[in-house]
Amino acid sequence: MTFSPASVDTMVMLVAVVSTLAILSVVYRENAFYRLFEHLFVGVATGFGIFVTWRDALSENFWQPLSHGSWYVIIPMLVSLLFYTVMIPKYAWMSRFLISILFGLGAGATFRGFATEVFPQVKSSFLSVVPRAATEAGAAVSTGQALNNIVFLGTLICVMVYFFFSFRHDNKIVTKTARTGRWLLMIAFGATFGSTVMARFSLLIDRIRFLLESGTAMGHWFR
Amino acid sequence: MEFANPFALIILTALSALVLAFILTSTGGRELFIRRVPGVDAIDEVVGRAVELGRPILFSVGLGGIDITTLQAITVIGHVAKIAARFRNRVIVPVVDPMAIPVIEEVQRESYASERAEEAFNPEDIRFLSGEQFAYAAGVVGIMHRERVGATFFFGNFAAEALVMAESGQQVGAVQIASTPDSNQIPFFLATCDYVIIGEEYYAVTALMSRDPVLRGSLIGQDYVKVILLLLIVLGFTLTTIMGPGHFLAKWFAGSGG
Amino acid sequence: MPQGASSTPYPPGLLQDWFATHVFCPLHGVAFVAAIIATVVAFVAILAGLQSLGSGARRRLTMACTFVAGLFYLLAFVLTPGNKASGTAVIGGKACAFRADITWDTAPDPTPQGPPVDDKDKPWQPPKPKTRTLKGAVELTPAEKVKGEPQPGVDILPIEGTQNADGTWDLKLAVDETPVALTRTGRSYALAWTGGSGTLTFRAGIPLNRVKGYEQPLGTFMIIMGGFTIFLGLINLVMLHGKVLLGARRGWHNSLAFFIGLVGMTVFGLWQLQLPALEAGQPVPLAHAGYKLFFDGLLKPLQSTTFALLGFFIVSAAYRAFRIRSTEAALMTIVAFVVMLGQVPMGQALTAWIPADGPFGWLRIETITNWLLTTPNTAATRGILFGSVTGGFALSLRVWLSLERGSYFGKEF
Q: Which tens digits make up the pLDDT trace of C334-352?
């Protein structure tokens, strides 16, 4: 059975318009139309997950090697069965055994993450707070940049002090630094918030444009 | 860089030793001071509000799978479920990673059993909502409205879907508490949630809730790790100011695994 | 890199090649079936053994395995791979630095005869031997004097070579068209080229890291294991919606929609994979039409519209933040407003009258926005990151050493 490309595109567009309207309707209130498409969405996304798991993970790493004689790829499959022991209380501890090992692996990876995430950022916080001429090791620092660097380091220190848990805030220096840290955090959060607004609007504008263009296209069909 | 240099090895060892030393001090019986975090104090109160309203609690662990961040959230689920179980209330936990299902199921079952409320626990309250970020968000929004949740907890790693869920929580009138170690979603949680536990406070929640000496000692060790980082930063920028950017400390850090 | 060749900056894992040649190699026919049966039997036997353990033994075993798992990644990171060599060359009585990178390389496949064969259709071959290869240079002049590309023989002396089984190195000086082999005397190598002569002494790093090589097979193991956990999620959803649908409970039509989405996407997705790719303008087979309907008609618009809901929600969130009567919330809202204005032409027009290069140029809204994002925002984000990563580090340490307390850890096995 085959279909003409135009009829498939028309059908796809119609369904896409209905899906878009269904999700947008939740802005007014949660309703039966939204609920239906929300369930459809979870179903389609789960189906897509199965499809992608097969295409990108299991077909290439499991099925193809197995069909070429690599018997040992069934070991991870057998091990994955331990996850399912949670359904049988007598054997449920085995899922905990496996998951603890996974957390152990995660812990090891975090040690590495500490070095790879934190150390380069510590290094890039080594800034000059006085103007300097350019050298082989780095670019010139102007007076403005030096002032900026002071603000940068001040913010970094205040924010780090804010997160101290074991220092009593009856010490005036600690209290004032932590308080400044809280204010600076709010400025930073405001900047993050403000920088995201336009990107979010453009997503919405994109969907509205899609609806308008689809409306025009459908108007032509029904004319 | 894929490998640590000797400098990174020394730093990692020293920092680990520091955390372990404080754990030992704390388990040795020494009472160590830890300041309060208002959001953590509010956890029990938020559960209580849902109980008063007779509505279930929704606990989202975000987009995390089996990792250290989610582990922390799972420990909080255990605590929340315990209080909820006392009042035969439900805790609905939607997840994106199927591997998280057995862990959360075990923790919840245990919490309900510890309060002799096994009958109030329904494994179907742990809901897989596909592995896709926005299908998950759409599903959570649906659950919030249909179940008329009284309290929502957002603990874990979140991305853009955070605001969709937190705004919907506001729409249903739930008391909301959020905590994430990632700075990008904190502003949106601050705007939509009643309590927000930010940044590193996320990892302090269990120590503050439980008063367990291991956790408290570890939290204080963490503070001293940051003191060392702070001293290194101050030393680094002093050296950069005096000697320029090519000094020895910058070179050590440059080759330290980053 | 040529077909079939590989190069890594670390040595193969301990016994990795032996395992790949003697244990984990493909089998066919009866041997294959026997291996599968034996693996399943061994697995069941291990499970039975584990089940027979007492609670204390289970706990100790879990602790030990968790420790080993964490240790694996830690060792893969901290053990030296021995991928650097350094030394000194004495040329005309002057000492010059020698630096080189070391890799473990395999030879490329022989030139293929006939049409290229897809990797997955190639017959199995045992792992190729790896050669420890060195590539580096003697720096003839201090680096700062070098302008542009260093000139071989003038600025640098390129040196490459391979290590022999006895640990010695066969080195070549690659200044001219044909590399010249270096003669070794004890620990030194004689250097001679058209521009001069000298001796080279160097030390190669010790390749202690025999763990890193196992990261790739472990990654594949995790991919397969993770792939099979999809059924955990599937069982969860099917049970929930199946009960609603079969019991014709309230909202059964929603559960039906769930099943239509699930089955449709899975079936059409997997079916269209078996067919040739769709060509423009040609009639569309059912499999492709169904896949397009579920993917382009449902999944994509549902995803992008849920994402686009943020366009509404960000406004209500901003309004909510504005209504919080606290100075902190007000500060956050004001900064957000300024940054938002600084990113749109209308906002930028408000301060466009201030000359950009004048003394008050910094008061222009886009300059303030840029400063807010690059200075306080970056610094505060970094401060949060340092704290969060430290928190994660301490938690990891507790998990690794089985010191963690809480619901999931520290209870009976």
A: 999 999 999 999 999 999 9
